[in-house]
Records
---
Amino acid sequence: MRHFLDFEKPLAELEGKIEELRHLSNGGDINIADEVARLEAKVDRLLRQTYAKLSPWQKVQLARHPDRPHGSDYIRELIAEFTPLAGDRSFGEDRAILGGIGRFRGRSVVVLAHEKGTDTETRLKHNFGMAKPEGYRKARRLMALAERFGLPLLTFVDTPGAYPGIDAEARGQAEAIARSIEACLQLTVPMIATIIGEGGSGGALALATGNRVLMMEHSVYSVISPEACASIIWRTAENAQDAAEALKLTAQDLLKLGVIDGIVPEPLGGAHRERQPAVAAAGEAIEAALRPLVALDGPSLRQQRREKFLAMGSRGL
Amino acid sequence: MNWLTNFVLPKIRAVVAKKDVPDNLWHKCPNCGQMLFHRDLEASLFVCGSCGHHLRLAPERRLSMLFDDGRYDAIELPKTVLDPLKFRDRKRYTERLKEAQARTGTGRDALVVAHGTVAGLPTVIAVFDFDFMGGSMGIAVGEGLLAAARLAVLQEAALLVVPASGGARMQEGILSLMQMSRTTLAVEMVKEKGLPYLVLLSDPTTGGVSASFAMLGDITLAEPGAVIGFTGARVIEETIREKLPEGFQRAEYLLDHGMVDMVVPRRELRDTLARLLGLLRRPAPPAQVVALRG
């Protein structure tokens, strides 16, 4: 079943009509081509209008759209010979973060990707993309693998945040995230992070302290979810839209702030409407970001990453 | 002001004003409610004589407790961009900053950085001020920790950080999140020079602060009873709809779970710190004293 956001409803209605007409025409020999063409033009117009002026809150909804391509989709489309590698070697295997080794455009790489799951069963299996300490420790272990064999690291970030639970705290959620950030900073191989959906706070940053940080056009990246922010400062989650506005969490704002390096354009209507071209566009952007980096030596890569983060925050909007 | 204070010269006014009585002679222990006399509190290093609760400390008090003879020099921290997002909720962020500055009576943000000696060894100490917007970490704090790290490297000093912070400063949005990477970088600068980086976790250390520099110490100390964790207890309770275990996210809980090296009562803090720094920084056995033969 397809899922439509509130502001997508008028589109859904039009598309429903087109579908209906097509279905009807199969029964008889009525010529509906003109009518379909007219409606399709209308859909296109409506899409352009809606997407030309998306509010930050609508971006948040799009970033969380259940039909949006997830980490495993990016891996399937972009990484050949992908071989998943499991476990943190001290406690368990966390399926909120997929990890492994494979080929990106012929080159061996290590991949880390949040996975939220697509239905009840897989969402539970992947814990809605909310990693526990073992997830971040697995990430760190695979970063060490990339380092040891000089392989570039590609990460795909899509998480509401690190898992808020007793067990996660007991096993040192804070420490696990801190060490993962530290490991990113120490890498002497190229690291490219792509925010594909929801970049939720420390849980996202743990996999995103890279040489290049890219964001999909309709993804968001924030220190706190708009709902949580609203419930803290407005004292009610109902102000989430205001919080989304104030937090400046869209890819476009983050580019202006110098926090990210590039935006990957999504097909009209968002990645969930045309998943494959969206993922392919990310592949192009990653390749373009990676190419100049593989020419650099280890110390320069580390230095570049350092300087990038040191320079951050010197300018506002 | 009355006609007399208006009339008399400033020097005389100072004499006249001397009869001012400190208005907070008594403090209430936030844990057990016991009324504590200020002089007793100072003598006990702000530990409740009744229940042992460690009260939160103003940065200056913390610094004078840790440095040799209570002497140190605070450094001026770099000026940073204010309100980078033009953040506004029910109030403007710039107003909130002004209010916080008025309350602490200083022009600073939530971090104080000072240098001096501990056990005779050069040491830089960075202390959070919880009274300033919950000790939250924005660009100013991140920049302050980088300055502390650079100073430690310059002076070949050890770095001790004492967080007291709810986490990242929301009003600086993504730029506050980026301070987690930047402060981790600050820690790296100190460590790669072979200098000790110590952390004293004080109440509270949570959120983005706990998930970055605060958990990366060569040695990690914690104050008794301090709340330390990533996600706040209320959020966890709301998410999992379960009662949290007794003592959850307290310093002692972290000790039991292997997340800190030791929980140190405030009274033993200076000696512990001095001993650790001595062990790390004076590793060679003391030179043998041989009596010169006449």
---
Amino acid sequence: MPHLDALLPLYPDPAIRRALLEQALAQIHADLADMRQAIHADHHADARQYVHRAKGTASFLGGSDSLPAFDQLTAALKAQHRAHIELAFAAVEAVLLQLAAKLQTQLDKLHHTAGEQA
Amino acid sequence: MGRRYMLLSGSSDRVRIAILDDHPVITLGVAAYLRSQPDFDIVHTETTSEALLHKLASQPCDVAVVDFYLPRQAWDGVDFIRRLRRRHPKLIIITFSAGAPAETEYAAFRAGANGYLPKSASMPMLVEIIRAACGQYLDKFITYKNGALRTTPPAHPDTRLTAAEIEVLRQIAQGLSVTQIAARLLRSKKTISTHKRRAMKKLNLSDDLALALYLNEKFDQKTGP
């Protein structure tokens, strides 16, 4: 899937674009929280499911560059290697927070435009 | 462009579409984009295979765009496509997957899908494959290579293994036991064990550790979103 800048023009309707951005933001924060909780509780199978979900969001909105971080976390969870899991989770967390910041910027732009038009 | 899909929808020239992806953001994004097409009606947007089957039973569609890998769901992959095909023989099934094309594309083809589009393709390409599958390529399997749609049937990814053996290995790679796979595929445990044993023999894998290493190599990085 294309990066955010190429993807968003496919949704010219501000309401639809806003809905997509808001759902993506909420999903990223929910997946991060679920992932963190599952990892801390050593529920590795659950954690892998959340990684899979977060990877889907990241691939759809952020392109493929960041995806190896998710694969590394999945591999670490499969191997149940605590140190590797922590390192890989930190990388995934950074990717998702960076993506969330980009989404928030786009949302702010939408709100700004809507405010100007009102 | 041909309008053979008019036949699919009865008297209407609109295309009724169902979308299945276990990623809610992708489901929303795909649905919103397809909805912008003047002749597409997005009838179902589901995140589980079970829910989609249930919804299609009461409100059929012309096209289903389905994700292939749906971990920890009742059905996914080949098993789900076969179920869809059995219950809805005329449904056009487009597999939309981030899995490795070599495995996923062939598996989808064998299971009865009408087309395969990798998630790395653009959204306009998704519209194009739906239109092609409903129109000029109604009776062909459509794939995507080098930025364009093609109708060459996909090649078998590993001539040593049967489609059933590949599917059993794929499910083992997802962490399912022989008992769980048997329940999922509606086969006996003995049949699943036989597929597993024959696959291991063909691949020269002597024990479960060797199998685990093979699965890791073959499926681990390729099952994502």
